[in-house]
From TrEMBL:
The keyword Transferase applies. Its EC number is 2.1.1.320. The lineage of its organism: Eukaryota, Fungi, Dikarya, Ascomycota, Pezizomycotina. It is found in: Mitochondrion. It is an enzyme of class 2 (transferase). GO terms for biological process: methylation; mitochondrial respiratory chain complex I assembly. This is Protein arginine methyltransferase NDUFAF7. It comes from Pochonia chlamydosporia 170.
Length: 440
């Protein structure tokens, strides 16, 4: 997944799809919530404004950090909204955009700083001045390039970021020690140790590995597709179960009781994203402090919006997306977007283990979050502003309803929101998660 999405040679986000095609939008492969409507970014911006108010309106040291910013549309709408709240806008020290793709960094810079902005190098990467707030906007290839400082107030947004992080898939299988090789050996074991006959079998985790598909299989699949009148790219790779434990299977499924409890059920499958846990832990350390960086007062917030499971472990969720259709993730490597369901419970677990200074709220369905944030009321304002423009009115109506669609595969149900906040013993629920603004 990492090689196909952000590899130096032919990664989906790093040049493989060519200069004449975009990943996003109608002409690309998928449409994200910020691209559907400005209301999404505006309400996310309001969420951070509400958090800033609830945390005592700090006058300085506020950092805005976005990981995986896409074309920059979300941050553009957020900053435009924050500009209407001068006190918060003044408190913002800098904006950080964590982006691995050089092409997307250039697109983001033109949008956020203007086409004539001249970037300059800095310690984290390069920076330029934003057109909305006039504050420095810094681009970094990695979150590690942004130092964790005890006197900063980090407001972090991760929208459709975690679903693109590489996953490992494991399946529970009977351990070799529980499989006598011959009938004679079974009889021998039972004769010398009768109690072995009734001893419970032993299980171990095996990793699902990506393996090249044999050329003959590829050719056969192409022939069948052609005969059926389908124009589907061949699956150059496939998943196979490892014949023995791997270094990942010995550690990752043993890292949480949630996975350990499934090992004794043969055939159980779990998907684990170690990168996701590392990012969640990083967010928590910036907000609540850690053993390495002590914060006298936890501050800041992280908002994660993505699709995934809220109370189960993801399985068989790896998917490919091309031209707005689901395709095999093993076809056309580098030309197909790859994603997997986010395990929100794992994110919450990683965050709370990384820092005693944070607590987690959610996940809640995106529909609940946006409706509590006032998307219906905002849509009514935009419709009123559109006046007699029937086409604009229809677009506004269609877009906000799409964002909160609670159907089986609707964005309002599939996408969820999770918040990481400073620890306060659960006394304050954040806006959008059943709470209200409660200034210190």
């Amino acid at each position: 997944m990492r090689m196909c999405l952000t590899g130096d040679l032919g990664g989906y986000y790093t040049g493989a799809i060519g200069q004449d095609r975009d990943q996003f939008g109608i002409k690309g492969d998928f449409v994200t919530s910020p691209e559907i409507s400005q209301m999404f970014g505006e309400l996310v911006g309001l969420w951070f404004i509400a958090e800033w108010i609830s945390q005592g309106q700090p006058k300085q040291g506020v950092q805005l950090i976005e990981v995986g910013p896409g074309r920059g549309t979300l941050m553009d709408d957020m900053l435009r909204t924050m500009k209407r709240f001068p006190a918060m806008a003044d408190s913002i020290e800098s904006v950080f955009m964590v982006e691995a793709s050089p092409e997307l960094r250039e697109t983001q810079q033109k949008l956020l700083c203007g086409p004539d902005a001249v970037p300059e190098t800095c310690e984290a990467g390069f920076r330029s001045h934003g057109k909305h707030l006039g504050k420095p906007i810094v681009w970094a290839e990695s979150l590690k390039s942004i130092p964790i400082e005890s006197n900063k107030v980090p407001f972090i947004i991760a929208h459709e970021f975690f679903d693109a992080l590489p996953i490992h898939t494991f399946q529970s299988a009977l351990a070799p020690a529980s499989l006598p090789k011959t009938t004679a050996s079974i009889a021998s074991i039972e004769k010398t140790s009768p109690e072995v006959k009734d001893s419970p079998p032993s299980y171990e985790w095996r990793e699902m590995m990506v393996s090249p598909t044999h050329p003959a299989e590829v050719a056969s699949a192409q022939a069948k597709a052609k005969a059926a009148g389908k124009d589907a790219p061949p699956e150059e790779f496939k998943l196979i179960l490892s014949s023995k434990p791997t270094r990942h299977s010995r550690y990752l499924p043993e890292s949480s009781l949630r996975y350990q409890q499934l090992k004794q059920y043969p055939g159980s499958v779990v998907e684990i994203c170690p990168d996701a846990s590392l990012y969640a832990a990083d967010f928590a350390a910036r907000i609540g402090g850690s053993e390495k960086v002590k914060k006298s007062q936890p501050s800041g917030a992280a908002l994660i919006l993505d699709y995934g499971t809220s109370d189960t472990i993801p399985i068989n969720s790896l998917r490919g997306i091309r031209h707005h259709k689901l395709v095999s993730p093993f076809s056309a490597p580098g030309l197909v977007d790859l994603s997997a369901d986010v395990d929100f419970t794992a994110l919450a677990e990683a965050a709370t283990l990384a820092s005693d200074g944070v607590e987690v709220h959610g996940p809640v369905p995106q529909a609940d979050f946006l409706e509590l944030m006032g998307i219906r009321e905002r849509a009514e304002m935009l419709i009123k502003g559109a006046g007699t423009n029937k086409s604009a009115t229809e677009d506004i109506e269609k877009s906000w309803k799409r964002l909160v669609d609670r159907g089986p595969s609707g964005m309002g149900k599939v996408y969820k929101a999770l918040a990481i906040l400073p620890e306060n013993d659960g006394k304050r629920r954040p806006v959008g998660f059943g709470g209200d603004i409660s200034p210190r």
